[in-house]
UniProtKB/TrEMBL annotation, chains A, B:
<dbReference type="InterPro" id="IPR058236">
    <property type="entry name" value="Rex_actinobacterial-type"/>
</dbReference>
<dbReference type="GO" id="GO:0045892">
    <property type="term" value="P:negative regulation of DNA-templated transcription"/>
</dbReference>
<dbReference type="InterPro" id="IPR003781">
    <property type="entry name" value="CoA-bd"/>
</dbReference>
<protein>
    <recommendedName>
        <fullName>Redox-sensing transcriptional repressor Rex</fullName>
    </recommendedName>
</protein>
<keyword id="KW-0678">Repressor</keyword>
<dbReference type="InterPro" id="IPR022876">
    <property type="entry name" value="Tscrpt_rep_Rex"/>
</dbReference>
<keyword id="KW-0963">Cytoplasm</keyword>
<dbReference type="InterPro" id="IPR036291">
    <property type="entry name" value="NAD(P)-bd_dom_sf"/>
</dbReference>
<feature type="DNA-binding region" description="H-T-H motif">
    <location>
        <begin position="32"/>
        <end position="71"/>
    </location>
</feature>
<dbReference type="InterPro" id="IPR036388">
    <property type="entry name" value="WH-like_DNA-bd_sf"/>
</dbReference>
<dbReference type="GO" id="GO:0003700">
    <property type="term" value="F:DNA-binding transcription factor activity"/>
</dbReference>
<dbReference type="Pfam" id="PF02629">
    <property type="entry name" value="CoA_binding"/>
</dbReference>
<keyword id="KW-0520">NAD</keyword>
<comment type="similarity">
    <text>Belongs to the transcriptional regulatory Rex family.</text>
</comment>
<feature type="domain" description="CoA-binding">
    <location>
        <begin position="95"/>
        <end position="196"/>
    </location>
</feature>
<dbReference type="Pfam" id="PF06971">
    <property type="entry name" value="Put_DNA-bind_N"/>
</dbReference>
<feature type="binding site">
    <location>
        <begin position="106"/>
        <end position="111"/>
    </location>
    <ligand>
        <name>NAD(+)</name>
    </ligand>
</feature>
Length: 256, 256
DNA sequence: TTGTGTGAAATATTTCACAGCC
DNA sequence: GGCTGTGAAATATTTCACACAA
């Protein structure tokens, strides 16, 4: 691509957004770059190389450059990237120039913590409403917000222009809540309940399952243990393991 | 592969683990299958087809079959999978046959919620210890566990055989905590702090960043808004968008 | 000379489609 | 007849390596 093309300049200088459809893997990394850039900006850096930003974000520099190249050319060859400019660009692409309103449904153990989580507010969002189905919890105030009954969702959603719904209910309630969110026009949902939700075409759904993360780590623990368990089988302990030798996690070595 | 090969039967009938090194994408889905299988078992199903399990887990059946084929052949052609057998097999591969001990560091807002999260306990883990650096929080009891000072980590880790460390501290403390966990022999870490951690080779690190999930959703909101914003540009509104037409999120349509 | 931007190569993952077994 | 297991094709993602701009 010739010359500098800045698709959708943040300053809206008459140009057009034309959000390029980024690879999903790239989208998932942009927030990480953004955080690293904010750190750099706070420590007085005005410029950063792909190498520098990549290591701050925990990726390799080739990947970073490829990712950023999808946004257009915001670097200067021989110099690096302008930190401020890149922050603006990424925030623009991620749609963070407007502070989206988030509705959190389910104010139990986890929901309570999410309601008080600074990161949402400090990173571009506004928790606009809290809901729960349990009347015992309705009325409680968390972080300056009053918990409302879920039946008030339609009214509140219209008033607050809710853009994103976060579900932190028990799994048994999650699908019903998702349906209600969809019904009031919410098109992005983040689900913390450990279950599969189905939503209509056009609604984006992401999920965070805390236990799954631990189970993935458990797999790798198991794997590491099963490898080190056979210290010397003659070399290729990594391949097939013909037969014999019952080794079911002797007791993973911890500490000295 | 000829006949039924059951690499590493759970019942340890003298056979060998021989954990096949599964594709990472497959590993990440196994916990989801496991949850779906438990649901099926509870509702009395003894057998399930790839189609049925796939839809319960929110994936397509081809992917499911490919994933399961990496574990060996546990299905019966023309019939489906034996629910109980598959549960055993997946639990075995994920290393859930032993209840791994988890240490949670950082008992603030989020950590507090994690300490009380049922899902960890119900899905194969044991929260063995809670730590914090803030002496004001040390001694507090959460869910039957007393919060200890982080300096006690070495002693406790040795006593409890901690396998996995969960970091729920502020970002500023996270790297130091990670270092301490690594120092006492922990080789798997789940990080909730919004920062990049570096750990030595051989230590597995996963990360959950709640704000990042919202930012990814925000991107898609932005994208949807920018597409629907040009209702009829003559057909190919999806391609480049030559120039002109300043469209910076008019106001995303919410509600009716 | 430095360091971005990017084609092209290498990997990883998903999907297709069907042979083979129950 | 139904459904798994799996090669082969299609996509997606990562990495390489270098032309070229500043």
């Amino acid at each position: 691509m010739s010359q500098h093309r800045h698709p959708g300049a943040p300053g809206r200088a008459g140009a057009v957004p034309a959000l390029p459809d980024l690879p999903e893997a790239t989208v998932a990394r942009l927030p990480e770059y953004l955080r690293a850039l904010h750190n750099l900006a706070e420590t007085g850096h005005e410029t950063v190389s792909s190498e520098g930003l990549a290591s701050a974000a925990g990726v390799n520099s080739a990947k970073l450059r490829k990712d950023l190249s999808h946004l257009g050319s915001y670097g200067t060859r021989g110099v690096g990237y302008d930190v401020g400019l890149l922050i603006d660009q990424i925030e623009y692409v991620l749609g963070l120039t407007q502070r989206r309103a988030v509705a959190l449904v389910g104010v139990g153990n986890l929901g309570h913590a999410l309601a008080g989580y600074d990161g949402f507010v400090s990173r571009g969002f506004r928790i606009a409403a809290l809901f729960d189905a349990d009347t015992a919890r309705v009325g409680e105030e968390i972080n300056g917000l009053v918990v409302r009954h879920i039946d008030e969702l339609p009214r509140v959603a219209a008033a607050e222009a809710i853009a994103i719904g976060v579900i932190a209910t028990p799994a048994s309630a999650a699908q019903a809540v998702a349906d209600q969110l969809v019904a009031v026009g919410v098109t992005s949902i983040l689900n913390f309940a450990p279950c599969v939700l189905s939503v209509p075409e056009g609604v984006d759904l992401r999920k965070v399952d805390l236990a799954i993360e631990l189970q993935i780590l458990s797999f790798h623990e198991h794997r590491k243990a099963s490898l080190t368990a056979l210290p010397a089988t003659g070399g290729s302990a990594l391949t097939a393991l013909p037969g014999g030798l019952a080794v079911t996690d002797p007791q993973e070595a911890i500490g000295t």
